[in-house]
Design brief:
The chain is mainly alpha-helical and 80 residues long. The chain has three helices and no strands. It has helices at residues 2-25, 33-45, 49-79.
């Protein structure tokens, strides 16, 4: 169980950082981190709907992995 717990903790940390990054990359409604790195320029020129949908899918997928890692850690702690 020690190996599984270590793998789940590493997965949780990596997915947490990636989830933060993908949420911050979303198109902002009023000046956020996405506007700071050029999101405002791309919104004026017209943003691609496909890119935003793909970012939504990636964010949802990472969120599911994050939630499963938390549930897995809880189950390991419960039955260890």
């Amino acid at each position: 169980m020690d190996i599984l717990e270590i793998i789940l903790k590493i997965l949780l940390v990596l997915s947490s950082f990636f989830l933060i990054a993908t949420v911050l990359l979303h198109k902002g409604r009023g000046g956020g981190l996405s506007d700071m790195f050029g999101g405002g320029v791309s919104s004026v020129a017209g943003s691609s709907g496909v890119a935003e949908r793909n970012l939504n899918r990636i964010t949802i997928g990472v969120g599911i992995v994050w939630a499963l890692a938390i549930v897995g850690l809880g189950l390991v702690a419960r039955f260890a």
